[in-house]
Amino acid sequence: MPDPHRTRGSYAKGIAKREEILERALEVVAREGMRGASVRELADAVGLSQAGLLHYFDSKEELFTEILRKRDEIDATERLGGGEGDVREGLRRVVRHNSEVPGVVALFSRLSVDAADPQHPAHAFFLERGEGLRGSFAASFRRRQEAGEISDAVDAETLARLLQAAADGLQLQWMLAPTFDMADTLDALFIALAGPLTRPAEDTREP
């Protein structure tokens, strides 16, 4: 009969090793990019064979997906403040950091296109990620609308989708021509939203 203590210990060690792999792999991808971060290089970085590395993941695609998930976990705790605070400032910190790790930005952009295929290992990750981000953005926009800080002419959910689109689109532009500041450019959207508050046209007509 298997020793339950040994089984639990082995499982815990497996989880710890997987986390170590993801942390080191994230560093390699940030430095080398997706093209330069082969399975062999990632395995070498954590002291494993290629077969040993893939023992912890079903495929290379799943490995890359989990690298992005680890990146999001770090962003959530270190840059977004664990989901608390001002979304504008947290997002600015994330985008500012992204400009320092072009390899991760490239991985995210390429994988997000591949993940359009429902059979791709990253498909569910990107769906869940998008829903979570838009939920957080929408809650922040709703609070600001209720406080009268931004116009309520457009509902918070639509603003959240537009913000996500702007953030992802700016990354593509930046990869093609990294001659502008992504954080400042994205921040301009918040400035525009907080401009002169106007009511929809039907509300300003004479009775």
Automatic annotation (TrEMBL):
The keyword DNA-binding applies. Keywords: DNA-binding, Repressor, Transcription, Transcription regulation. Gene3D superfamilies: Tetracycline Repressor, domain 2. InterPro entries: BetI_C, Homeodomain-like_sf, HTH-type_TetR-like_transc_reg, HTH_TetR, Tet_transcr_reg_TetR-rel_C_sf. Residues 15-75 form the HTH tetR-type domain. It holds the Pfam family TetR_N. GO terms for molecular function: DNA-binding transcription factor activity; transcription cis-regulatory region binding. It comes from the Bacteria. Residues 38-57 bind DNA. This is TetR family transcriptional regulator. It comes from Microbacterium aurantiacum.
